[in-house]
Amino acid sequence: MKENFLKYMNEKHSDIITALYKKYGNTQTSVGVKLSDVDENGIFIEYQDNVIQIPFEKKITDPLEYEDAIIKLCSNTKNTKDFSKIEESLIKFIDSKKTVIISSYNDGTCVSSYAPFVREDNKIFITISKIAPHFKSLSIDKNVSLMFIQDEKDAFSIFARLRATFCVTPKFHYEQDIKDKIFDKFVDLYPDDASISFIRNMSDFCVVEFELLSKGRYVKGFGAAFDLEGLKVIKQAGSTNPHSYKR
Q1: How far is 21 from 73, CA to CA, in rounded Å?
Q2: Where do the DUF2470 domain residues begin and end (predicted)?
Q3: Which of 121, 172, 225, 235 lies 20 to 30 A from 64 at CA?
Q4: How far apart are the first and last CA of the chain?
Q5: Contact of 97 with 166, CB cutoff 8 Å
Q6: pLDDT tens-digit profile of 95-142?
Q7: What is the pTM of this model?
């Protein structure tokens, strides 16, 4: 059965097999590429004496699903100028998160933390205490990275969690009207969280704004990374796979 399937794919879908090899094999060759094997974890594509393995997004328990899984892999190799659906999925993904991971730098030491956030268009707002370590690092070094990342339990592979990262610059707000506005939004998002009213009355908490305007990266899975300018996708990252394989 497997031999018949491999023959079918190589004859009927040679364009897909070739496109996958070009993407993951770091080559522009198109002659003599063939699907040599497939199992529950992925496919094996052969060219001369070189064989590369490409993992499926999830284990395939039914061999009848192999063809659809391979075609789905190929969708990640297509270059397009219409990124509207990718941008929609990016915004939907960010809005599905409750917290953002913040990485900053302070006097030779990297500082990582997290905070609940509110999004307004391309702006991310958090609230932090002035006594928190990352408040000092945000104040001293304006080079900051934000990361939104998929929950481990929802990822098809622990090595390919959906994620979006942005290079940002913090802007501090101490105005009471802005603080009230952002905390009102936190209340709307989390009406049952009693700590919000407690924190908003603390004088050491302020609002920090990050505007998503500069470069970023959105990774949807293996072979599906996109370069960003703010929330806009500007191109698919890399026409070939940057990784190498054992020979």
Answers
A1: 11
A2: 4-72
A3: 225
A4: 29
A5: no
A6: 999 999 999 988 788 899 999 999 999 999 999 999 988 898 899 888
A7: 0.74
